[in-house]
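Hey Z.,

So I finally got round to the adenine thing we talked about over coffee. Here's the setup:
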Amino acid sequence: MNFAVLTIFPEMFESFWNHGIVRRAVSSDLITAATINIRDYAQGRHRVTDDRPYGGGCGMVMKPEPLAAAIVAARSRQPESRVVLLSPQGRPFDQPTAEALATESGLILVCGRYEGVDERICQDHIDLEISIGDYVLTGGELAAMVVVDAVTRLIPGSLGGEDSADLDSFSTGLLEHAHYTRPRTFADEPVPDVLLSGNHKEIEDWRLETSLIRTFLKRQDLLEQRPLTPRETEILKNWCQDLERIICAQSEHRADPLSGR
Ligand code: ADE
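And the result:
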């Protein structure tokens, strides 16, 4: 995967390309990482990249000429790449989008600044617009980093353990199970016995169950969007029965005048 980021703040990416999984992916040639300074393609002594909006109003707009020239230069280096504009108006970025982007041979990520980019750039040069959430950032740089990070970790070999991305939250449609590491007891809380049992089947069952519980408690919308497997249905039905039992036990307590409640 070839990444090229077009930005007026290339320094923001120096540290980003040089840390963690992204850095390792670069050094093992799984990805290439280029940062292109849009200002290098701007004309004049001051290399201006923004201008006032036609029609008036506050804020500035990214000028089309330097952006177009920077995109053309990036495309000439990686002609097969998709050109993605990071913008709050884009398609919401999610795991399926990251998975789709990970199959591309390259991505040219255009970071907008100011009030936005000249509309003619969007029409003529952009293949896809992506938003990382319903909030407005001061520029697309952080959003580009989010996209690069999420896509890079999906490239086979980037995570070390080949199948670790397959079990992630969202890729299974569920949030990930609970994790524990040493020490065995922390803040008076022991690691669940099952994880120390060495019984892989039981551990797998426990993980699926905690994964379902977390998704139910934190993101019911994910459960509603996704068909349940027979095993998952069975787990959920068992909980229903447990809950019914607890509720029934409550009404019995109330009926008992000696219970003190
Ligand atoms: N630029 C500004 N806000 C953004 C957002 N929410 N997503 C992507 N790019 C942006």
